Amino acid sequence: MSTSFWISLATAVTTGVFAVFVLARYQVRRRWHLLAWGVGLVLYSLSSLAQALLVSDFNGFLFKFWYWAGAVAVAPWLGQGTMFLLARRKKWTWISFWAIIVLCVLSLPLIFGADLNASAYQLDVALSEQFQNIFITTGIARTIRVVLVIVLNTYGTLLLVGGAVYSAFIFWRKRVLMNRMWGSVLIAIGGLLPAMGGFLILLGSPDFKYWGQLFGGLILFAGFLVATKGEPVPQKKAKTA
Fold first, then answer.
1. Closest Cα to residue 197, out of 75, 31, 81, 102?
2. Which residues lie closer than 8 Å to 92 by C-beta, 6 or more apart?
3. How far, in Å, CA of 45 to CA of 23, rounded?
4. Residue of 12, 93, 72, 21 whose CA lies nearest to 47
5. What angle do CA 155, 159, 165 make, to 5 degrees?
6. How far apart are CA 193 and CA 5, in angstroms?
């Protein structure tokens, strides 16, 4: 197997473990930001797994799922988690929450209903470099798909990275909860790495994008652990007869 396969598989495992960790925390705390992050991380993991499987052979469904989960859904769900955590006006938080759900659902027929040119797939070329040639969709459908990807990724990345930078600054200025400050710094870096995929490819190898996804997931996980270090986790009350 190629390096891309192992990196993608490692990313899937890392973010999968991270997702389980976050969703287990949600089961106890019942906080919406944890649920949104958990959904985003599950999609992160599954899209990475699909990417790993596509390294050795082309599969239309996996390709479409990889694109939908990785290019459309991951970033806005992670960003929405930060929105739930930091936003003071909950009205706009819920509006954005439902908007993300609607847009993610609307994108499904655009992506899964698109025709593919399987013969354009090349094993030795990164998916991010050839997906445009594989999608046959043209005209208004292609335009809507591209706009959705740009809008949702921009929204998610700005919220995740921007929210982490803002939190780090607040903790630094107040000189309190320094573990959360450093955790926020790591989350900002981890959120930025996957978004820099195009730049990383320019460094000379498509594998750099895969490394960006892996280290992005690892650093996000590390940031979350650092930020929540020493934080007591409330236990569920036992049911009494």
1. 75
2. none
3. 14
4. 12
5. 145
6. 19
Tokens of 29: 């705390």
Beta-bridge partners for 135: 116
- Which DSSP letter does residue 220 get? H
Q: Is 142 helix (H, G, I), strand (E, B) or coil?
A: helix
> Tokens in use for 192?
């930025």
This prediction has a pTM of 0.88
Strand partners, 116: 135
212 contacts 48 by C-beta, under 8 angstroms: no
Write the CA distances from 138 to 69, 143, 150, 167, integer angstroms: 21, 8, 17, 42
Q: How far apart are CA 22 and CA 13, in angstroms?
A: 14
Residues in the chain, pLDDT under 70: 1, 197-207, 230-241
- Cross-strand partners of 86: none
Q: Which CATH number fits domain 3-228: 1.25.10, 1.20.1070, 1.10.40, 1.10.1660?
A: 1.20.1070
Q: What is the CA radius of gyration of the chain?
A: 19
Residues 54 and 77 sit within 8 Å (Cβ to Cβ): no
Q: How do residues 101-148 score in pLDDT, each as one tens digit?
A: 999 999 999 899 888 998 889 887 778 778 888 888 777 878 888 888
Name residue, tokens 């954005």.
96
The CA distance from 165 to 219, in Å, is 15
First to last CA, the chain: 56
CA distance linking residue 199 with residue 150, whole number of Å: 16
